[in-house]
Known about the structure:
Helix content is 35%, strand content 15%. It is α/β, with parallel strands linked by helices.
Amino acid sequence: MNTPETVAPEWIRPHMDTALCLAEAALAAGEFPVGCVIACQDQIVSTGARTSSSGQHPNETDHAEIRALQEYFALDAPPPAETCIVISTLEPCLMCFGALLISGFRTIAYAYEDAMGGGTSANLSVLPPLYRNACPRIIPGIRRNRSLRLFQQFFRNPETIYWKNSLLSQYTLSQALPPEV
Ligand SMILES: [Zn+2]
């Protein structure tokens, strides 16, 4: 049986593909291209995609991970969080990372690193017990280039306002990508 402790990247990839489809749909809708899947073994438990990132006043609570969390908590009998894996196309920010830890999730996989606002490298050992004792397992880089490609499309779009000319935009556009096959 696959548990979060034994799960291999090969097992995560199909779920990441689903998260990338959610990110592609967000991009097509003019949103920041992030998708998130919460999975228990081979079953998808809940999903989320970024919304409210377009326009002059983006809402910084409608992140893909928070929306997947809200769908998870709306289930009648969700599987225990510690048995699930959170799979996001972008490294979770500090808000999402904190919400996931408080909610009991302990395994988080992501595709593309967030060089500007990623929260998963936070030094939990200096924080209060709820965080210090969480000991999450972080699995980076699953399908990284597919996610990076979506962010490059987003930031190359002249209509993009969200995080335009930010460190994340500059970092993203400076990343080399192999030709699409
Ligand atoms: Zn977030």
